[in-house]
Design a protein that fits this description.
Strand content of chain A: under 5%
Largest sheet of chain A: none
Order of helices and strands of chain A: HHHHHHHHH
Shape of chain B: elongated
Shape of chain A: globular
Number of helices of chain A: 9
CATH superfamily of chain A: PhyR, sigma-like (SL) domain
Number of helices of chain B: 5
Structural class of chain B: mainly alpha
CATH architecture of chain A: Up-down Bundle
Strand content of chain B: under 5%
Order of helices and strands of chain B: HHHHH
Number of strands of chain B: 0
Distance between the termini of chain B: 21 Å
Number of domains of chain A: 1
Helix content of chain B: over 70%
CATH topology of chain A: Butyryl-CoA Dehydrogenase, subunit A, domain 3
Oligomer: heterodimer
Chain lengths: 164, 206
């Protein structure tokens, strides 16, 4: 298989999940697309290193997580959060109930700490725990505790948000 | 009231799709690659031109004083140093393998990169300016013997004025701005690193 065909296959298999990860981290669609694009550009540049790797998705996630972490260097967090609220509120006027629930969920995710956003997005996308541990560099035991805590926090935030 | 499983269902029902295709990524890769290469090429070309001009002036002009030769060595060394720093940083930032590090290690790299750039833009730039000033000073010693007094004075005042303006006005402002930016970034990165620390939490936190 040539490099371009392999890349296409990898992109199709992973792009949606990586987009969700970036969306969960930034809270807005445009930045999520930019970060996803940046991630896959780096994947393309490193493709030869991955060729014989069994779990290529782990490495793609690792690149995506590090790309998201670098993004903070140029974006002011506070300004971003305000912006995120506005975007979600404006968009919610035009969308259905189902989409509104998704927007509300993203809004709650944006209120979590940065590493919590990354971890919970992977949990929601059903990435196996050992893989999440490998991506985030957090020990397996510690990760389980963290995930338990983030799940509780997110559920509380969502229910609180839904009441208002 | 919804539990986490309900949130998971909402998540899986989302229809938000990326607007970027694999062709877009490849197009951007080619464009960016050319962009980087061009930027580096222009910088390298500009500096090589400056070095060539200095060497040409050095060879073609019958300088008699050792101070002028020293001035030429200092100025060419400054240009070569600048060239080396730019190429080294370019290679460092292009090192894609760092992206495969654990997030905590990657944050460490970002911190050290930012600190190094800060040192380069402040302390090292200060030393660079001093050396360049000495270079010009030594150069003007011979000029003072060859040209008229007025030409020498105007040349020296203009050159030294510009260097002093860069050092005391532009440089001070730049350093202050860089310091604030660096402080913000380091704080953000430290906060992130703290989040990835692998200390086991207390049982009662569960």
């Amino acid at each position: 298989m040539n490099k371009e065909a392999l890349f296409k296959e990898i992109f199709q298999a992973n792009s949606r999940k990586i987009y969700h990860l970036c969306y969960g981290y930034t809270g807005d669609d445009d930045s999520a697309n930019d970060l996803m694009q940046e991630t896959f550009m780096k994947v393309w540049q490193n493709l030869d290193k991955f060729r014989n790797q069994a779990l290529i998705s782990t490495w793609i996630y690792r690149i995506a997580v590090n790309t998201c972490l670098s993004y903070l260097r140029v974006e002011k967090r506070q300004a971003k959060d305000e912006l995120t609220d506005n975007i979600i509120e404006n968009k919610s006027e035009e969308i259905s109930d189902k989409d509104e629930q998704v927007a509300s969920l993203y809004k709650c995710i944006s209120q979590l700490e940065e590493n919590e956003r990354l971890i919970i997005t992977m949990v929601l996308d059903e990435i196996p725990y050992p893989e999440i541990a490998q991506i985030s560099g957090i020990s397996d035991g510690n990760l389980r505790v963290k995930i338990h805590r983030i799940k509780q926090k997110l559920t509380e935030l969502y229910n609180k948000n839904e009441r208002f | 009231m919804k539990d986490f499983e309900a949130l998971k269902n909402i998540w899986h029902n989302q229809v938000a799709l990326p607007k970027v295709s694999h062709e877009d990524v490849l197009r951007k890769v080619r464009k960016t690659k050319n962009g980087f290469a061009n930027k580096l090429l222009i910088e390298l070309f500009g500096m090589c031109l400056a070095i060539s001009m200095l060497i040409y002036v050095w060879i073609s002009s019958p300088f008699k004083m050792w101070t002028t030769h020293l001035a030429m060595v200092i100025m060419i060394s400054c240009c070569l140093y600048y060239l080396y720093i730019q190429v080294r940083d370019y290679i460092r930032i292009k090192d894609e393998s760092l992206l495969l590090n654990k997030p905590e290690e990657y944050i460490d790299y970002l911190k050290s990169y930012r600190s190094d750039r800060y040192i380069l833009n402040t302390r090292k730039y200060k030393i660079y300016t001093w050396f360049l000033s000495f270079g010009f000073l030594f150069y003007f010693i011979e000029i003072a013997f060859l040209a008229s007094l007025w030409v020498t004075v105007i040349g020296m005042v203009f050159t030294m004025g510009w260097i002093l303006f860069c050092y005391f006005v532009l440089m001070k402002r730049y350093i202050r701005k860089e310091e604030l930016k660096l402080e913000d970034m380091i704080q953000d990165l430290e906060r992130l690193q703290q989040q990835f620390k692998t200390n086991e939490p207390n049982e009662n936190q569960i």
